[in-house]
Amino acid sequence: MHPYNRLPSSGHNSPSPPPSPLRSPRFRHSRSKAGGRFNQPGRTLIQRIVWHLLSVLIRRQGFFLFAPLLYISGMLLYMGSVSFEVVPVISHRPAPGSVYRSPQLYAKLRPEMDADNSSADAISTVWKHSYKGAEWRPCVNKSSGGLAESNGYIYIEANGGLNQQRTSICNAVAVAGYLNATLVIPNFHYHSIWRDPSKFRDIYDEDYFISMLENDVRVVNKVPEYLMERFDHNLSNVYNFRIKAWSPILYYKDAVLPRLLEEKVIRISPFANRLSFDSPPAVQRLRCLANYEALRFSSPILTLGETLVARMKERSANYGGKYISVHLRFEEDMVAFSCCVFDGGEQENEDPGAIRINGKCPLTPLEVGLMLRGMGFDKNTFIYLASGKIYNAEKTMAPLLEMFPNLQTKEMLASDEELAPFKNFSSRMAATDYTVCLHSEVFVTTQGGNFPHFLMGHRRYLYGGHSKTIRPDKRKLALLFDNPKIGWKTFKRQLLGMRSHGDSKGFELKRPNDSIYTFPCPDCMCRSNKTEDARALSAT
Question: Which residues does the annotated region (Disordered) include (predicted)?
């Protein structure tokens, strides 16, 4: 039997595997010779030894299991003999818009910028957009009838800065009116950040506030003594509601009103952002009435603010008394909290730049100047700068003053004696800035926050529904400021387009979850047709 056919025959004639081929005669012949191929002439001793080893290993097929390991070992030995200093290093190129290169861009564009005489009177032509042939006018109606008997007293603590406190005040008016309660003049919570111990009457005209709301919401200075006796004349002993942020008005009716009827005095602390933006028309009307009509700054603040407005208009008389106001958020704490780098050095290069790309870094004074010059405002434009203490002001403000030498601040416009009553009170200083910005022809916001949001709403309320505000696209700006190849004409064309887009966005209606303090249309304002208004005027 053939050695490969070890199974017994099954009765079928299955073909057997072919016999193993005989060895090559050439190979047999070579082996028969003394020494075989290993003694062929022309081969060195080392070559013969290597060939012999390979022959042995090839005949032992297990060698192939170790071949990959031997290959890797050989590569490691080879790499160990090569200096890594010669290996090329792949450098990472920062993403566009991630690096602060504005100083370099300013140096590049400045000659063309200074030579550009094509700018028209931008401040007089900046606002061209109208709301489809109509305007908006304030239409907050005050009640004329008397009020029903009060269900009790509501005392709230307004926390935060000037405009966050303003939110609390207006929301408190709305809640008190909805619950038919008496509102106690809100207490301003002292905060370690703002460090302002001012009371309500230091910031706002308290008597005017009470009188403007007298037919809609009862407002008193304090809780009556006979009620406070129950709490040992200590408001901290009064039951305090801890209300979730953005609670609907129905929550106050279902949860707060029963306790108010029982206790007759309740406290809500903190109260900022404790009422939903979306509420029934009756609640929105009270918010509008409080914010746009009842809240007026106290006499000292109003007097100083109006004085500074008059001085700005006087200095810009050649421009029709029109000036730009800029809210610059480049204080030291703002720069620190932003986690952005502005020195343009090695540290900036190591910064991944995601914050800057997303438009989250505060604009520097230099960038504000570049932006405004690109938008067509020439160096003779008068600017009022609303800001706290600027970070590294001597260095960072220099390029802005070069571009706009007619820039003013409250410290420049007012004497030390005029500013003395306000200097150590951040909210009073902010209220002064608010007044001057409110009456400017153009308001420029460079960073988010309550200050610009309230100003935009207030300006819409005063200027026919148009905010007259420039809100730059900071993501686009980051790309422009980080483009070393851009020329002045291209840069200016991009910025003029951004300005035009801001004009078209001046009229915006409130949408769900929008703040009524930023978008007063249509809750606080009514649309009026220009033709009808003209007819009404001619009839009178």
Answer: 1-39
